[in-house]
Amino acid sequence: MFRNLLTRLFNDDPHPRPLASPDAEVAIAALLVRVARADDIYDQAERQRIDRILARRRGLTLEEAAERRAAAEMIEAEAPDTVRFTREVKERIALEDRVDVIGSMWETAYADSKRAADEETLIRLVAGLLGVPDRDSALARQKVLQDLGISED
């Protein structure tokens, strides 16, 4: 189902079309996987957090979410650099969903309750590339920290 997602994302169409909902969710999941891998530690806690985020976003079972994450892991590994990948995703995902995507990225980054500079740097880069203002990204981060019961040190 998702094998041709990269082809659809990078087909050099001068008028890109929005992705169908499952494809958009896999592209978003690929961004979550990319942030989880940013610090070179991609553990079970991060995979489970991504599964819960995906399940919550679209009402999936955890098994369905895990399947979507597995597809996203393959896509993320083959996707080009973050700048190009994110630009393609931005053109196909509704503006109102982008802040939620950044919040989901912050939630993924804090799956292990630790701050990792590589993850934070990537999220800030992606927020800018998705057109999410710094203030909105910071508010999303604060909400995630509050929801997870993590204090800012």
UniProtKB/TrEMBL annotation:
Entry superkingdom: Bacteria
UniProt domain Co-chaperone DjlA N-terminal: residue ranges: 26-142
Listed InterPro entries: DjlA_N, TerB-like
Chain coiled-coil ranges: none
Protein name: TerB family tellurite resistance protein
Source organism per UniProt: Paracoccus methylarcula
